[in-house]
Amino acid sequence: MTKNPSYRQDRQAGDARRLREAFMKAVAVPFLAMIALSCASADDGDNRTHNDENGYSYAIGLWGDLPYSAVQEVGVAALIDDMNAQRLAFTVHDGDLKAGSSECTDAVYSKALGYFNALKAPAMFTPGDNDWTDCDRTAGYNSLVQLDKERALFFSTPFSLGQRKLRQEVQTDPLCLSAKGAFLPCVENRRWTIGRVTYATLNVQGSCNNLCDVAPDPNEYAARNAANIQWMKETLEQAKTRNSVAVMLISQANPGWDLNDPNRAPLRDPKTLVEKTPVGTDSSTDGFKEFLLALRDEVVTFRKPVAYVHGDSHYFRIDKPFLDASGRRLENFTRVETFGDNQANGTNDVQWLKVSVDATSREVFSYQPQIVPANRVAVPAP
């Protein structure tokens, strides 16, 4: 592992030991016991200092699909320092802690936990396909075993990660499948409200949402997809009840929104939301249509701003690709894709996105990409 320049060597050994001990202890705890306290409202934790119902401005940090290499580990250390230098209400990593072809060792998860807990602000995380579904590509690994490990390590309490903690609502209904085939809570699905804006994470995966690749799992997909749809609907309904002025949803997968981006996302009829193959036929492994149809209905009904944050295709962009069934653009919907791995160019895309949140403004969210000075490659910092 490349050394993190922000930490002393004498702390590394102790931190690594404590992470391993915490990880092994967490894995042994039954999932129902892990979330016994998780039904409490997100407003009960540190969130109380932010929860001004009259609305005010604050900033959050979004990142994901990092690190994929030893060079990028150095870049992530600089990225964390850059986030810590700014006053953020919280950060969210939208999944993929490593390259999809690399081994799914426990060390990957422990190292990631170290990154999150190095952040001063509350740190949220939603799993990515590289973290679990793609682990089936390597002999000796099972995707659901890996997801069980992530649930135990990152989601064993109703609090966020990070040096400051924020209490979150957790999806406690036993709707997801474990490696043993038992139904358990989807503890990775989280929700919190700051000021008058509601946020939620959803375990929606790249690689066809676990319906294709080396070892597709239709049963796991069906259970988790139904849970995601339920959590998303409940989030929008709760936002209405709270009179939230906006909602932000965060997941890993780029589900594809139209027919314009074959290199980075599934092709999709923007009116029917049916996924198309490159030759134009309907896809048989579409893991997103049902979710997108439900999301579209909720966005139209909510009427206020909805931001959908994802990673997966490693191409920073902010746009409005979502259409209704008549082909009209959903004006209140914004897709936000975070920066992600570009291994060929080292730390070139090891950057993050700062989102300013102002409940009194019409659009609520405004976006400013943060180019970490130490991670500039093509044009060095002046």
End-to-end separation in angstroms reads 29 Å
Figure out the total of helices. Answer: 8
Strand order of the largest sheet: 4-7-8-9-12-14-13
**What overall geometry do the principal axes of the alpha carbons give?**
globular
Task: Estimate what percentage of residues fall within beta strands.
Answer: 15-25%
Second-tier CATH architecture: 4-Layer Sandwich
List key phrases describing it.
382 residues; alpha/beta; 5-stranded mixed beta sheet; 28% helix; 18% strand; disordered N terminus
Please explain how this structure is put together:
This protein has 382 residues and is α/β, with parallel strands linked by helices. Helices cover 28% and strands 18% of the residues. The chain has helices at 9-27, 31-34, 70-84, 106-118, 143-154, 206-210, 218-242, 289-302; strands at 57-63, 90-93, 123-125, 169-170, 174-177, 183-185, 190-194, 197-201, 246-250, 267-268, 275-276, 306-310, 317-319, 333-337, 352-358, 365-370. The strands form four sheets. The protein has a seven-stranded mixed sheet with strand order 4-7-8-9-12-14-13, covered by helices on one side. The protein has a five-stranded mixed sheet with strand order 3-2-1-15-16, with no helix packed on it. The protein has a two-stranded antiparallel sheet with strand order 5-6. The two termini are 29 Å apart.
